[in-house]
């Protein structure tokens, strides 16, 4: 079975490295010498903007072997629909994975935008549907629906979106949405329907994923916990006669040697404020879960390595989820293979800086993948094997 | 002295074609495409997507020196924000106005998407908010609001969108929308707000326009002078000054005879020969035949470049400064307007600089 490997496009600027948490690509931080601030050259506006950098990341990851890029959505980011629509015609095979929360757009409008985008891109739109907490209070977005109800709304949203997709007339009367005589016009109707990556770790999310997900998407967690979560989703889905695939969103810090990789972390750690270690907001169950995998208190960065190469401190070095992989190219590839072994069908990888790391991971890590967990086929423990390889 | 006119073209949301009824550019009417003979090499199949033609129209408008393009809200056509984003990304100067109705999104999200588009395009996005939808069309878009409520909601929509636009700490509690501790952070905050184009002649429509429109768009079948007078008074009360615009189909040629010959040719194509070619309205000079041969049902101007320019000048004298022109086929006619009609306003345009 083919494995789809996506990259991530930072919609909120980027850091030149994990060594210092300074977002000097884009305009999210004050302009200093060395800032790549698209839009300003010699103090004047030059007609470029941050989307030109995002286009570079898209082209870099497209050419280094990724099938597409996740466009995240938070209050402080650029918007994924706007980004995808602007970049639609600047890549050839690249899929745009648009993160969005149902409820911000009306489902008929979401269907219209998606169908026009499918036409603009030749069918390269993928959805990452988020229903749960995304940081600040939902009312920042002007959304009054509370956590568990948002999953019920997501179900209705997708009912309407799918209902109008193939034309009309379509009528619907739900708790959240009502339409009459709806349907996409020709030739917007019957475009390929975007694959749905569905995120969320709460009970409500896992139930909704059972109904809607093509791929159930999780942040990286320690592998046994991840496998258990997948099992839960599998069980809920089976009860509904469905069998979603599984995807994991993973930050990767890969270097030629394990030592070089950890050395990067060490340099970044020197700037971490210990007070920032435990912070959480919003109503995200995923975040609380991720913090529960760590043995507190933490004094040293290696104490956040909960299992070989699985490190839970990425959020301290850049904005985003906590867990990712740190190691040599071989080790990272082996961990990805292990994840394939526990049932992962797709990855959304990311590395800082996104442009350069797309080339590195595409060129150095992805070619090493075997597509299965080598522990199941080799008598050698993976670590023994990687050490053996390293000495050759 | 009259103000400098701003000319926009109207982007076709359901394909384009040489003649009325023909939409064989793009993929809206594949059956109307005339294939090349089998023995002629044709490299096109598979090489062109449905958005190639839209991109070509945007480039034509930019190269021909038009100030902008309107992508109307068209529930039976291409989605306007996606089209607008593409046109903006593929141009350097063109301002693009996307039409939509307030039910498509929360005002926060509409503003969020638009802030990114402003950032990506050096602030060239505009909004045309369509409030007065046909009720059946509105219901097909999931919108069951009726009558005056639609204007009340539009007012809240624009209030909230502007409220979150400029910075943090924005809270709003309205009939339709609620925001708590909202508002954008830099660099998404403090950008120029999209230019807001509104329409309509009802008292409710004019009231919203007076408070929220940057440009109020009329059509030729409306009493433009009365509308401007009314809006001038109402917007002054609100401490604002509006600009006025007109949606205007045009058919312009070297001389009047040639223009009317073309009108007659198009009229015959749609089978209108039996009713005879209608005459232009003797009072306004506007021709109502566009309702049959063009994409919109709005009356427009037919004649030589000078005749059409004189008609436009009449509106300029009344205070109309924005002209959203409509002409088919879009690429050829956009070039024509840029080369032949716009230079007749060189004096006004120079004056303004």
Automatic annotation (TrEMBL), chain A:
The organism's place on the tree of life at top rank: Bacteria
Residue ranges that the Swiss-Prot or TrEMBL entry lists as coiled coil: none
Q: Does the keyword ATP-binding apply?
A: no
What protein is this chain from? LLM class flavin-dependent oxidoreductase
According to its UniProt entry, this protein's organism is Microbispora hainanensis
Luciferase-like domain location: 42-345
- Gene3D superfamilies given for it? Luciferase-like domain
Q: Which UniProt keywords apply?
A: Flavoprotein, FMN, Monooxygenase, Oxidoreductase
């Amino acid at each position: 079975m083919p494995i789809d490997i996506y990259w991530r496009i930072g919609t909120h600027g980027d850091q030149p490295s994990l060594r210092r948490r300074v977002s000097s690509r884009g305009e999210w931080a004050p302009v200093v010498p060395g800032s790549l601030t698209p839009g300003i050259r010699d103090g004047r506006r030059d007609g470029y903007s941050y989307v030109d950098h995002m286009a570079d990341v898209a082209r870099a990851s497209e050419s280094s072997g990724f099938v597409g890029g996740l466009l995240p959505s938070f209050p402080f980011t650029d918007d994924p629909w706007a980004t995808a629509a602007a970049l639609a015609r600047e890549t050839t095979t690249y899929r745009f994975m648009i993160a969005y929360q149902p409820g911000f757009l009306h489902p008929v409008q979401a269907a219209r935008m998606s169908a026009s985008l499918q036409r603009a891109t030749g069918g390269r739109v993928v959805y990452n549907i988020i229903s749960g907490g995304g940081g600040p209070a939902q009312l920042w977005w002007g959304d009054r629906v509370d956590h568990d109800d948002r999953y019920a709304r997501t179900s209705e949203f997708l009912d309407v979106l799918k209902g109008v997709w193939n034309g009309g007339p379509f009528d619907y009367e739900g708790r959240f949405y009502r339409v009459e005589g709806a349907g996409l016009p020709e030739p917007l109707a019957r475009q390929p329907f975007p694959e749905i990556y569905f995120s969320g770790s709460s009970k409500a999310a896992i139930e909704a994923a059972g109904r809607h997900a093509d791929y159930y998407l999780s942040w990286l967690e320690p592998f046994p916990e991840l496998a258990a979560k997948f099992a839960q989703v599998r069980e809920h889905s089976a009860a509904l006669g469905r069998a979603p695939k599984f995807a994991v969103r993973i930050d990767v810090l890969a270097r030629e040697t394990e030592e070089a990789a950890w050395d990067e972390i060490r340099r970044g750690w020197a700037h971490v404020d210990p007070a920032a270690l435990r912070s959480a907001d919003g109503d995200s169950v995923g975040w609380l879960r991720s913090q529960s995998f760590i043995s507190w208190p933490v004094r040293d960065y290696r104490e956040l390595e909960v299992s070989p190469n699985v490190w839970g401190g990425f959020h301290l070095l850049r904005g985003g989820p906590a867990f990712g992989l740190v190691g040599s190219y071989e080790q990272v590839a082996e961990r990805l293979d292990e994840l394939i072994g526990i049932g992962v069908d797709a990855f959304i990888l990311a590395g800082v800086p996104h442009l350069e790391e797309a080339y590195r991971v595409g060129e150095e890590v992805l070619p090493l993948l075997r597509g299965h967990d080598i522990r199941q086929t080799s008598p050698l423990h993976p670590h023994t094997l990687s050490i053996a390889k390293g000495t050759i | 002295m009259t103000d400098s006119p701003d000319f926009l073209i109207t982007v076709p949301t359901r394909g384009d074609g040489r003649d009325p009824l023909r939409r064989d550019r793009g993929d809206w009417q594949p059956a109307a495409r005339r294939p090349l003979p089998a023995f002629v090499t044709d490299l096109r199949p598979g090489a062109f997507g449905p958005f190639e033609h839209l991109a070509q129209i945007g480039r034509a408008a930019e190269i021909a020196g038009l100030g902008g393009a309107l992508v109307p809200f068209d529930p039976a056509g291409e989605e306007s924000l996606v089209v607008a984003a593409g046109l903006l990304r593929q141009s350097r100067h063109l301002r693009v106005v996307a039409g939509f109705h307030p039910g498509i999104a929360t005002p926060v999200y509409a503003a969020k998407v638009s802030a990114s588009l402003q950032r990506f395009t050096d602030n060239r996005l505009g909004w045309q908010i369509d409030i007065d939808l046909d009720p059946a069309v509105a219901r097909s878009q999931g919108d069951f609001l009726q009558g005056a409520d639609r204007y009340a909601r539009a007012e809240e929509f624009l209030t909230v969108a502007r409220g979150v636009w400029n910075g943090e700490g924005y809270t709003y509690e309205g009939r339709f929308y609620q925001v708590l501790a909202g508002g954008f952070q830099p660099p998404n905050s403090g950008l120029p707000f999209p230019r807001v184009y509104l329409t309509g002649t009802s008292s409710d429509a004019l009231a919203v326009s007076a408070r929220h429109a940057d440009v109020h768009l009329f059509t030729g079948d409306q009493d433009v002078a009365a509308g401007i007078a009314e809006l001038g008074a109402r917007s002054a009360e609100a401490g604002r000054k509006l600009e006025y615009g007109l949606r205007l189909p045009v058919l312009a040629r070297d001389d009047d005879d040639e223009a009317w010959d073309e009108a007659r040719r198009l009229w015959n194509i749609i089978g209108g020969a039996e009713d005879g070619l209608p005459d232009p309205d003797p009072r306004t000079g506007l021709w109502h035949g566009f309702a049959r041969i063009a994409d919109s049902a709005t009356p427009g101007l037919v004649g030589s470049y000078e005749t059409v320019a004189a008609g436009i000048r009449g509106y300029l004298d009344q205070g109309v400064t924005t002209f959203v022109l409509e002409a088919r086929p879009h690429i050829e006619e956009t070039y024509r307007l840029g080369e032949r009609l716009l230079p007749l306003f060189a004096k006004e345009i120079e004056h303004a600089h």
